[in-house]
Amino acid sequence: MHLALFLIFGALCVAGALNLLLQRHPINSALSLIVVMSSLAVLYLLLGAEFLAAAQVIVYSGAIMVLFTFVIMLLNAGREERTRGSKMAYVIGFPGAAVLLALLADIFITHSGEFHRVHAGEYVVSTAALSGVLFRDLLLPFEVTSILILIAILGAVALARKEH
Amino acid sequence: METGLFTFLIVNLIKIVVVVVILLMAVAYTVLLERKLVGRIQNRWGPSRVGPFGLLQPLADGAKLFLKEDLMPFAVERPLYVLAPMIALGCALTSIAVIPFGANIQWHGVDLFQISDVSIGLLILLGITSVGVYGIALSGWSSNNKYSLLGALRASAQVISYELALGLALVGVVMRAGSLRLRDIVNVQTGHSLVAFLHWNFFGGFQFVAFFIYLMAAYAETNRAPFDLPEAESELTAGYHTEYSSMKFAMFFMAEYANMITVGCVATLLFFGGWTSPFGHFLSGSGPVSTAILSVFWFVAKVFFFLFLYIWVRGTLPRFRYDQLMGFGWTFLVPVAIANIVVTGLWMGLSLPAH
Amino acid sequence: MVPISWYLILSAVLFSIGVAAFFIKRNIITVFMSIELMLNAVNLTFVGFAQQWHEVSGQIFVFFVMVVAAAEAAVGLAIIIAVFRARSTLNVDQIDLMKL
User: Fold this and answer.
1) C21 in contact with A at a CB cutoff of 8 Å?
2) Average pLDDT estimate for B273-301
3) Which of the other chains make 3 or more beta carbon contacts under 8 angstroms with chain B?
């Protein structure tokens, strides 16, 4: 069951990410990214992170990507055109990504003996446990992030405002 | 898990089919209820020709929508145009999966009145609601029509803004229950005296501020009057579903009413004691069968009240202007919701003994 | 019964696709989206290691990454709107006035 779920949603993740790369229209890319994020939420559930799975759907799929689609619709972004610069990007992009992937995969495979096997439901972090750590041990960083968000709101308003 | 994987799948499949069929019937008759009630509010009869008291009207409507020609406008973005109503209806129907609509009665280890009892039920509901906006946004964008696009832009901005107030309003309830599991939240509100309704979050938890914030934000989330700007017919013809016809239009229509029912269920569970009787042991059943019937009865009665309220509000209030809508959400509902969290926290901190 | 290393390799694949998309895509919104993809890939690694060491702190990291990503998306999209107003294009090759 766990293996089947991992394979299905892992494949969905990879397919969505590849689709993001291959689609020319930004709204199709945004939709494939939503597929990736929602499948990642299921993988988080399999890894015993139930609060993060919900937060992933609410924050990423439900808020951040809605903002993206909103901006795409607002600016009426069309298909991207090819320019002379994009040839250089192909030359650097694909080999660079391939080297990175090979390196990471090599490290993970050579050390694969040190990793556990996940049994579903063996170690589940409840929302209460997570918030216990967050609001007791890490209260200061949590409060600092609220200031970060406040600054981000001010910055976004200042940047997007029309100048008179 | 005692039962095998196969029986688990079969049992859940049966439960899902039964619940979805009941939900779709409820949606059809909510439409009839709305037409009847709005008719009475406007001093006319409403549908009364098909069947006794017009009771077969939903079937006639369904047959009409099913048999209509499915127009595919020339300039639409085809895949997204087809996908959008499916997302809207799919999200609207999925959210019923975590809702318990009766007492916790097990029959051979199978929970009879809930599809799945998950420990993050409330968060899942919020997540599904937040994904549902894609149905509206994509339908407007892919229709390639300025009225649709304006409706969709309005809808996405409105839903993102009001989701904040909606989520913040529920925090007080979660703090009181100490759990995100919907059954736990209902169990906190149960009492045994004849005035058990004083234990409801609405009265006993002093969450009535949260309740009114939730109700207003939820009306905006479901794009219902007085917040129905995305489909304001006098300004945008029909908003995001201008270009849709036949079954695709019907899917948006069903999604809207299914969302209304979900909002009614959530309000019932979080603020009005769910399936419990308002009078304690009086009318709450003694044996398993009577408990089952009466708990479902109370749940349905409370949800029916909220649907009635929805329609009543629609028949009474005029529509907001767009800047008023945004100002109301950001400068009134969100600050009040935050104040409610602070007050609830202080009250709980002062009334509970320190560990 | 899935080894954690599979999750890590999945996240490496996602991260590499994100890097490739970052280099190749020309639309500034899509470039921004590929950054989000990379952040998500890293989040998967954090959750995987939280499961490996039975530690909550890995998941706390993901929580903070989500907060920062939300702030980043708000500011970034505001910048994109400002750039579009000034240049009326979204192509990164045409927004290179600071290049020598």
Assistant:
1) yes
2) 79
3) A
Which residues constitute the domain of residue B341? 70-351
Give the model confidence (pLDDT) of B25-62 as tens digits.
888 888 888 888 888 888 888 787 887 877 888 888 88
B119 vs A contacts (CB less than 8 Å): 50, 126-127
Q: Are residues A6 and A73 in the same domain?
A: yes
Round the average pLDDT of chain B to a whole number and report it.
82
Is A54 within 8 Å of B152 when comparing Cβ atoms? no
Tell if the CB–CB gap between A73 and B163 is shorter than 8 Å: no
Closest residue in C to A117 (Cα) is C3
- Expressed as residue numbers, the domain containing A55 is 1-79+119-124
Q: Is the distance from CB of B293 to CB of B285 less than 8 angstroms? A: yes
Q: Are C3 and A83 within 8 A, CB to CB?
A: no
Q: pLDDT band at B1, cuts 50/70/90?
A: very low
As for how many domains chain B has, the answer is: 1
CB contact under 8 A, A73 and B140: yes
Rounded distance between C-alpha atoms, residue B277 and residue B283, angstroms? 7
Q: Are residues A70 and A5 in the same domain?
A: yes
Q: How many CB atoms lie within 10 A of CB B37?
A: 18
Q: Lowest-confidence range among A17-31, A119-133, B172-186, C10-24?
A: A119-133
Task: Find chain C residues with C-beta within 8 A of A136's C-beta.
Answer: none
What sign results for the dihedral spanned by CA atoms B50, B23, B30, B324? negative
Which residues are CB-neighbours of B83 under 8 A, at least 6 positions away?
B138
* pLDDT value at A39 more than 90: yes
Per-residue model confidence (pLDDT) at position B233: 63
B62 token code pair: 């369904």
Chain C contact probe: residue of A6, A91, A104, A140 with most C CBs at under 10 A:
A104
Nearest partner of C82 among A71, B141, A85, A27, judged by Cα: A71
User: Is residue A116 within 8 Å of C10, Cβ to Cβ?
Assistant: no
Was domain C4-94 assigned CATH 3.90.550.10?
Answer: no
Q: Is residue B33 part of a domain?
A: no
Cβ atoms within 10 Å of A132's Cβ, excluding its own: 12
Q: How many CB pairs under 8 A join A and B?
A: 73
Tell me the CB-side half-sphere exposure of residue A78, using CA atoms within 13 A.
5
Q: Does A141 touch chain C (CB under 8 A)?
A: yes
pLDDT at B79 over 70: yes
Contact (Cβ atoms closer than 8 angstroms) between residue B264 and residue B303: yes
Instruction: Supply the pLDDT for residue C43.
Output: 93
**Residue B149 is assigned to a structural domain of this protein:** yes
Interface of A with C in 102-121 (CB under 8 A): 104-105, 108-109, 111-112, 115-119
With 90 as the cut, is the pLDDT of residue B274 above it? no
Tell me, what's the ipTM?
0.88
Determine what percent of chain B is predicted with pLDDT higher than 70: 93
Chain B CB contacts of A53 under 8 Å are: 120
Q: Closest approach of chain B CAs to the CA of A10, in angstroms?
A: 20
Q: What is the mean pLDDT of residues B189-217?
A: 80
pTM value surpassing 0.95: no
Task: For residue B186, give both structure tokens.
Answer: 């209902």
Structure confidence at residue A11 as a pLDDT band (50, 70, 90) = very high
Domain residues of chain C, as ranges? Answer: 4-94
Distance from CA of C35 to the nearest CA of A (A): 11
- Residue B52 included in any domain: no
A68 shares a domain with A7: yes
Residue A61 belongs to domain with CATH number: 1.20.120.1200
pLDDT at res. B353: 63
How many separate domains does chain A show? 2
